[in-house]
Amino acid sequence: MNLPRKIIIDTDPGQDDAVAILLALGSPDEIEVLGITAVAGNVPLALTQRNARIICELANRRDIPVFAGCDRPLQRPLVTAEHVHGKTGLDGPQMSDPTMPLQDQHAVDFLIETLRREPAKSVTLCPLGPLTNIATAFQRAPDIIARVQEIVLMGGAYFEVGNITPAAEFNIYVDPQAADMVFKSGIPIVVMPLDVTHKALATAPRIEAFRALGTEPGRMVAEWTDFFERFDKQKYGSSGAPLHDPCVIAYLLRPALFSGRHINVEIETQSELTMGMTVADWWGVTKRPANALFIGALDAEGFFALLTERIGRL
C-alpha cells in the first residue's frame, strides 16, 4: 500500500475548482491535502478564500487549512472571470457563509514553510488558477524549488488557442510573468491545457449522474455545472461545459486516463497581442529542451466514472 501523495492545492474557486477540490477530498487513501492556498483569479481573493472554505465544509473537512495568498498578479492588473463563474465565483446553488476559520498565515509563507519542512520531493503542487502564489514563493525562497516533487497544473492551450484572448488561456493570461517563472523552474511539470480539458465535457447525462448520488456534494456539483455550462455551451456550441480543474486531480489518481507529449513550453510575456500564450512545441520544431508533459487526450468516460464515484464518497 503506497502512502497517500501529499499535495497543496493552489486555487481560485470557481465551480470547476470546487469539483477538483471535492475529488481530492473524496480520495483520502491516495491523496493527502496538506492545505489549500487561495489566489486572486476567477474572482478576487476575498471570494476565492471564502469559496475554498465553503468547499471544505461541503466535504465535511473543516480540518483542511485554507490560506489567503496574493490578491493581484506580479506585474499586471488583475483580470477576473465573473462572466463565466458569476459574481461569487460559485454562482448556481444557494450557499451559506463558511464558519471554519481562514488561517492567519499568508499562503506564500505556508508554501515555503511546508516545502522546507516536508521531505524533499515529497510534495506535489496542484495549481488550478493563476500562478502568482507559486511564483512568489519561488522568488522569496529559491531553496524550495528543488524540494518540489512535481507541479500538475491546469492552464494554457495550444490547439484550442485561447479562452480569454484569441491566443491565451485565462490562468496563464492573468499572470504570465508568474507562469514564465514556474515553467523555467526546472521542476517536472504536467500541464492540463484546454486541449484536454475541452474533452472533459459535463454533458446532461453526466450532470444527472452527480444529482443521482442523492448527496449534498452531488447536488452542488450538478448545480454548479448547470450554472457555468450555460456560458460554455453558448460560446463553444458544445454539448456541455468543460470541467477543467478536476483533470489535475484525476491525473494524480489515474494517470492512465491521460496522454500527451513531453515538450518545450514557453510563456509569452512581451507582446500584448499574444500575452500569456503557451507556446507549445508540439511538433518538436525547435531545439528548446522539453520542460513539461503537455496533455492532449483523455478517456472522458473513465474520467467521469472516477469523478462520480469519488464525489459519491463524500
Structure description:
The chain has twelve helices and twelve strands. It has an eight-stranded mixed sheet, with helices on both faces. It has 314 residues and is an alpha/beta fold. The longest helix is centred in the C-terminal third of the chain and has 21 residues, at 216-236. The mean pLDDT is 96. The chain starts with a strand and ends with a helix.
Q: How large, in whole angstroms, is the Cα Rg?
A: 18 Å
Secondary structural class: alpha/beta
User: Span between N and C termini?
Assistant: 22 Å
Name the beta content range: 15-25%
Mean pLDDT: 96
Low-pLDDT stretches? none
The total of beta strands comes to 12
Describe the global form: globular
Q: Which series of helices and strands comes N to C?
A: EHEHEHHEHEHHEHEHHEHEEEEH
Approximate helicity band: 25-40%
Reported for the largest beta sheet, the result is: 8 strands, mixed
Name the strands of the widest sheet in spatial order.
3-2-1-4-5-6-12-9
Determine the number of helices (DSSP H or I, runs of at least 4 residues): 12
Any chance you could write out the topology, listing elements then pairs?
Layout: E1 5-11, H1 15-25, E2 31-38, H2 45-58, E3 66-68, H3 82-85, H4 107-117, E4 123-127, H5 132-140, E5 148-154, H6 170-174, H7 176-183, E6 189-192, H8 194-197, E7 201-203, H9 204-211, H10 216-236, E8 240-242, H11 246-253, E9 258-263, E10 265-267, E11 278-280, E12 292-298, H12 300-311
Parallel strand pairs: 1-2, 1-4, 2-3, 4-5, 5-6, 6-12
Antiparallel strand pairs: 7-8, 9-12, 10-11
Helix pairs in contact: 1-2, 1-10, 1-11, 4-5, 5-7, 9-10
